[in-house]
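Hi there,

I know you've been waiting on this one. I reran it after we fixed the sequence typo, so this is the corrected version. Both the input and the resulting structure follow.
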Amino acid sequence: MPADERFAVRRESARASVPRPLTAAPAPAGVPLPPGLALRGRLATGARRPETPGGSGRGGSGSRTPRSGRGGGPRRAYERARRAWDRPLTAYYVILGSSLLITVLGLVMVYSASMIKALDISKPATYFFGKQFLAAVIGGGLMLIAARMPVKLHRGLAYPILMVTVFLMVLVQVPGIGMSVNGNQNWLYLGGPFQLQPSEFGKLALILWGADLLARKQDKRLLTQWKHMLVPLVPVAFMLLGLIMLGGDMGTAIILTAILFGLLWLAGAPTRLFAGVLGFAAVLAFLLIRTSPNRMSRLACMGVSEPDPEGGCWQAAHGIYALASGGWFGSGLGASVEKWGQLPEPHTDFIFAITGEELGLAGTLSVLALFAALGYAGIRVAGRTEDPFVRYAAGGVTTWITAQAVINIGAVLGLLPIAGVPLPLFSYGGSALLPTMFAVGLMIAFAREDPAAKVALAMRKPGVRWKTMRRRVKKRSSGER
């Protein structure tokens, strides 16, 4: 049989094998069809639907609402936002984006807030900005290294970082080696204009070492006993606190205490044990504040709106003035008045006040939103992992950054005593910026270690995507077009 005839036979047989739609048989005269059978008959014969009174076809008022439109626009927007947040790489992008935005905005504000201070000490206007920019570049390299390091290597660095940090903190107290800045003996001179504050690295050391310790004890099921939960975590933390308090740095000691409580809470400390440690720390803090006139004066400056006649609470009052004069959108970048000698430390502890004066309420709320996003993403990383070390380390870093931001901003707003801690990733200070950016890289590494995130990152590689697409496309015959 010729090829054309074979092709015609196959086409006729294929058409015969296709099932035809059912059609309703014509009803006898005077006998109505059932509704369902009548509808099938009209659809099969191609009859058009009758137009509704409100319009033609589906556009009328009597038409049925599509399922995707149920709930209105806000509900659809909420569902889309929830699905976007549940994606595997959301925490990865939020941590990376928010931390970089805070750092870049901090560099801009450090330059704006420190120009007058630099000129006042006979330095170029970019003096403090140049040092902060160099620290940001080095910190960016540390963040990239930490983000690419595997979790096992992070655990392996826990003990070396702790030992080096303790050695440097002891070295600070040696006469002739340690330096005193603003009454605190917590600095090491590195030569030239560079100094180092080892207590800032103590926060990172406690998180890594404490997370590794608690993870190993959890693997051995020892955290159900209170002595294994407290020893040696609490004694080592108190040793670091003692070395910090020898230099008089109460603010850093508060942050270290918050990190300790965060680790104990993540480890599942019982309420009585948690309350006991918290009560002991509160009594110790009260004694340290009560025995220091400087700390008592800072406590008395909470909520003040103007300095006293003797010049007390000057910094707290002028911080409120800076925020109050900013309005909704601020006086403009670089147009601050308080930085012209009225507000002490405008580029370090009270840089948030200068931000409110120059960028207004919109600028301060943007900074708060970035810190809130960073904290929430850290909680997401800690809550979704099954690795205990990742959970403790991510929770410790989130506690560190969040608590320090709350204490700094609360002091500027007059809601908390002035503790002398910088705003993380934002204030001037290379010693605070370097370990913080390494900690952010740590959280990025943890976000990348999620199994779903690993698959999503692998699919982003060009080679993997091309191979996947090649597998999905069916191979066609040479004669098919």
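Quick highlight: The first helix runs from residue 3 to 17.

Best,
R. S.
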